[in-house]
């Protein structure tokens, strides 16, 4: 698996995936929907998966003495790796944003612990939809990405709307850290657990589906 992951990082990853990691700095933009940072991270997968399709990467790997389960696992690890690096890269900018003596984010959730706790399950939902659709029809990358984007956009819209309509979001989560630290850490822990569970569910589903695909 180490060799497969090395293959993914050296030969499959499109340069935009690396570039979009730098967009974590968008957390410093005043009054901006910060979940968009994580959308850009997902956008990089469109270029990566499209490039791999044009190079017939899955077909090439299928000719090697590898099981389809290994191909699914390596692509999953690639996606999860970049998503987690994106989250980690965003943390210093969130801390810097919190240090500014300026009002909170008027466009929605401020850059803080709760933002990451809510963003993680959103990424998990994107993976479940996008990867689930991709491994069902590997040639239709654009369709799979569009479906994933719809799910991600709906989650982002609901989360940002909740900041203005749900008292728990408005008065507890959308506050400067470390206010209401306990509640925010619980949200972060639940978000991380949901991210792991959604990816595990997606992986099992994709393995079962991809076994039936004729490359």
Can you tell me the residue ranges where pLDDT is under 50 for at least 5 consecutive residues?
A: none
Major β-sheet profile: none
Secondary structural class: mainly alpha
Determine the fraction of residues in helical runs and give it as a percent range: over 70%
Radius of gyration: 18 Å
How many distinct helices? 9
The shape, in one word, is elongated
The run of helices and strands is: HHHHHHHHH
Strand content: under 5%
Tally of extended strands? Answer: 0
CA distance, first residue to last residue: 21 Å
Structure overview:
It is built from nine helices and no strands. The radius of gyration is 18 Å and the shape is elongated. Helix 3 packs antiparallel against helix 5 (68-99), helix 5 runs antiparallel to helix 9 (181-210) and helix 6 (113-134) packs parallel to helix 9. With 215 residues, it is mainly α.
Topology readout:
Layout: H1 2-12, H2 15-21, H3 36-54, H4 57-62, H5 68-99, H6 113-134, H7 141-165, H8 167-173, H9 181-210
Main attributes?
215 residues, mainly alpha
In short:
The protein is an all-alpha fold.
